């Protein structure tokens, strides 16, 4: 099912109570926009509350005003106008949904929500405001807010910490109550009404404009002032005299001021309906001061394993089920108990954190302090502080079960104060001033936490000693007393939020680099693309490039090194920010030849170092970055080539009688049609994932269209001819010296494939000290003549070039007095195409050299070996298939080279969709083979249709518009269809519903405009495969190629 699209917010506003936090949170919003977590066009604003005590309602009004101001200025207005709200989606987040119409969303950030992707909220005929409610138990509702609604969902009342009777009235048919979740939506009309109040005293005092005008601040609640006046059962009298829960009892002097503000809200908003959307399959957890509740929201007590997010953990087996690790780097044995949470920590074991703990903000320097301890039911946190302008590091330690309330019997570290005093020697006067009232002597006000010691740095050990009776003669107690200590309440204003976020960002990249190294070295199918984007967008690609260099240089597996180099190319491409030209392009600049030569010689470490040195010269502008990225992909191709060269292990020949001089050896082959699994045969997928392709050897219009012929000639030269079977339009080349063969590795050079065939067949050694004529005369007593031909158009998609290489090798080997088996020939073609530097997989030669219907497979290992299995079909099915199979030449020439580069780039990036699709290609090949065994044309049609969708996902852009139009026209007449090979053009093959449909489909296409120069061809399964025969002797002329 298609996932609903998220909202592209026009404005996202984060309200802050503290001035020093505004710039910090503004930067965090911008960082998330750089990571593409927020759309690029969204306006981001961190907005300071006019006063600390304007309440959630006042903060909402002020934020709405600021948003309207910015949108008005963006639209060219010189004054604030509410018209800008009509086309805006505004999200206001208070510090402490898809499908909706334009308006304003307001959301608190002091709760954890879990909602489905599509909550099923209907916006038909909606007006007014809407609150989002989530289900909760009656017991939970006693300490929270709940909504009372009528059967149509209109809100009648809002209860906060209501009575049993009030809560009972809110119970829904599912036995749960709708909790106030902190999420509200205002329609444009209602938002305009609310915005209009910013010019009316005393509500103007909620905004920065009122503050700048000297107005007295007023505290408003979003829910119990602004929304409460819209509830159906609330009367004006009750509303004016009521007090919102967040207005403390000590604020009686502002009651009259508040009453005036409420009267203004009643006039503006009373006629606006307030409705509720109840998300029955969601959940809500308010972040209270209770550590137990907080841990319950973060950990997953019933989960079968540990939850690991943005973290690298060396020994995951030590994490208990139900535990949670977030943004951490854990080295060595770090044991975590059930229900415990680690956040923002870099720890090195051995460390044992038992059940019910939360540890946050500790760095590797603090790890030693935890050695030897086994923590249970504790909350240990490291905090970045700024005391009198100086940065510092403080630590807090409390018990999970400690009460933070001021009334009642207090505890610390899960034991009564009296027991704590007895165990540690700490006294009450250490924690509170003598004149502190007993009711104020509580955990929040206790000066427990050292923040500065006169002679040394502080660490977790300065608190952990309190957990057990010490045998140190009071040393730890004396050090604690000698430290400047703060209470929890005193510590809060000293927290350095900027330093905290900076340290978290640093840790995020530290663990990410460890994870990147592990992902590459362990050959995991996880994408590093998000990390690459984050590193580049946040201005720190250097450490990532260094890590990738280290992995590549130290890799024992060429596949690991090649992927690391591909990731470097991705980093460079990302640094270009979409400028500098296309990623695909040439990679043979002379400046890069020195590092390439190291790689070609197998000196990986020197090659990677030389690449990095050259890279540093190409970082100054986007065009150079893109060119450098291309050369890193070129370096990766060298390593792929070396890996595929391992297929030589499976190439062998047997000596046979040498044909006489002038005697032609002729090799002919059918074309191939791929029915399933293509791309999985392409290196490196073929040896990293393992490939499986089902292919058919086919004759086109009754002919075997691909062939080669070779013979020995008396002249010690190589005579090459490329072109049609007849002599017209044939490219003719004579090689008289080794220099004439030097361009064998340049695929577009005339005769490059034939030259590579001579080298791969071992007839010529291009780096030998012997001249060409000396080599030929010494071994064969003369030279060779080699002709190749194909009757198929260039870029047909039917495997022409690989099959042509196979015929050329087979003919040459036989002319040289050797015979090579077909399976050995398949591997020989792999080797030849790497020598030629075209790359490519093995499916083409399997499809054309082997007869009939078969599945080729390669395992996820090196050396690369291809195994072929014939697919047995029911009697008579081949003829039935021939009657229903047609080829349509689309008139479009495909450009598979760029498609191949794009696919390899996506595979090396391990994009999740590409990885999943690659696995599906292999799996469906087996399903397609079963459809052939059953002899089911409809099933085969389904396979073809699915296969074409897989090809398009693998290589977006492989379906030209004219081809799509042709396929749409043919769709009613076929079981299935697909472009051959990589797509992009060439031949389209069809499995028709009715037999012998060539003329009928020609008539259908003739009626369709804009299809270009197409043609329809008969096709039949070839049951012979490669054929090799010796013809009579023909005398050669002295120089047949003028």
Stated plainly, the CATH topology of the largest domain is called Spore Coat Polysaccharide Biosynthesis Protein SpsA, Chain A
Shape label: elongated
Give the helix proportion (percent range). Answer: 25-40%
Main sheet specs: 8 strands, antiparallel
**CATH level-two architecture of the largest domain:** Alpha-Beta Complex
Tell me what portion of residues adopts beta-strand conformation: 15-25%
Mean pLDDT: 89
Q: Spans with pLDDT under 50 lasting ≥5 residues?
A: none
Ends apart, CA distance between termini: 65 Å
List keywords for this structure.
alpha/beta, 8-stranded antiparallel β-sheet, 1042 residues, 35 helices, elongated, 5 domains, single chain, Spore Coat Polysaccharide Biosynthesis Protein SpsA, Chain A, 21% strand, 7-stranded mixed β-sheet
Quick synopsis:
With 1042 residues, the chain is α/β, with parallel strands linked by helices. It contains 35 helices and 43 strands.
Present the secondary structure layout.
Layout: E1 11-16, H1 22-34, E2 43-48, H2 55-74, E3 89-94, E4 103-108, E5 111-114, E6 129-136, H3 138-141, E7 145-149, E8 155-160, H4 164-169, E9 177-187, H5 188-196, H6 208-212, H7 222-227, H8 236-241, H9 255-269, E10 274-278, E11 283-286, H10 291-298, E12 307-309, E13 312-313, E14 324-326, E15 329-331, E16 334-336, E17 341-343, E18 346-348, E19 351-353, E20 358-360, H11 367-370, E21 374-375, E22 378-387, E23 390-399, E24 411-412, E25 415-416, H12 417-424, H13 428-431, E26 449-452, H14 461-464, H15 475-482, E27 484-486, H16 488-491, H17 497-521, H18 529-537, H19 541-554, H20 558-575, H21 593-600, H22 604-615, H23 622-644, E28 653-655, E29 663-669, E30 671-676, H24 685-690, E31 691-700, E32 706-713, E33 718-722, E34 731-735, H25 752-760, H26 772-780, E35 783-790, H27 800-815, E36 818-820, H28 822-836, H29 843-849, E37 853-858, E38 866-870, H30 877-884, E39 885-889, H31 896-908, H32 912-934, H33 937-954, H34 961-970, E40 974-979, E41 987-992, H35 998-1006, E42 1015-1021, E43 1027-1033
Parallel strand pairs: 1-2, 1-3, 3-4, 6-10, 12-14, 13-15, 14-17, 15-18, 16-19, 17-20, 19-21, 20-22, 33-35
Antiparallel strand pairs: 4-9, 5-11, 6-9, 7-8, 22-23, 24-25, 26-27, 28-36, 29-32, 29-43, 30-31, 31-37, 31-42, 32-35, 33-34, 37-38, 39-41, 39-42, 40-41
